[in-house]
Design brief:
The chain is mainly α and 88 residues long. The chain has a domain of 57 residues. The protein has 4 helices and 2 strands. It has a two-stranded antiparallel sheet. Helix 1 packs antiparallel against helix 2. It is globular, with a radius of gyration of 14 Å. The two termini are 27 Å apart.
Length: 88
């Protein structure tokens, strides 16, 4: 469910010997968690307190996500419509 350009936002940590670690950007994690839509993921989203810009990025991904799974994308959109960043 990652956006096609997620690799451009990977955060690379310094190598530890042969170990190379790349982390997903917050906005890509937010997209994945919202699309998954499990209770734990939604709880994580509230704890992450996404910025308006991050939520706008998720909204910009909705057309692509609808092509993948319309019901999940509809749930994601419903969550976005109801979400307020001032929730506990």
């Amino acid at each position: 469910m990652l956006p096609p350009d997620y690799k451009a936002r990977l955060i690379t940590l310094p190598a530890r010997g042969k170990l190379h670690i790349a982390l997903l950007h917050r906005q890509d994690i937010i997209v994945m968690k919202l699309f998954a839509g499990r209770p734990r993921d939604l709880t994580d989203i509230v704890a992450l307190r996404p910025t308006p810009q991050e939520l706008q990025f998720v909204r910009s991904e909705l057309p692509r996500l609808r092509r993948i799974d319309q019901p999940r994308a509809a749930r994601l959109e419903s969550f976005l419509d109801q979400y307020h960043d001032d929730e506990p």
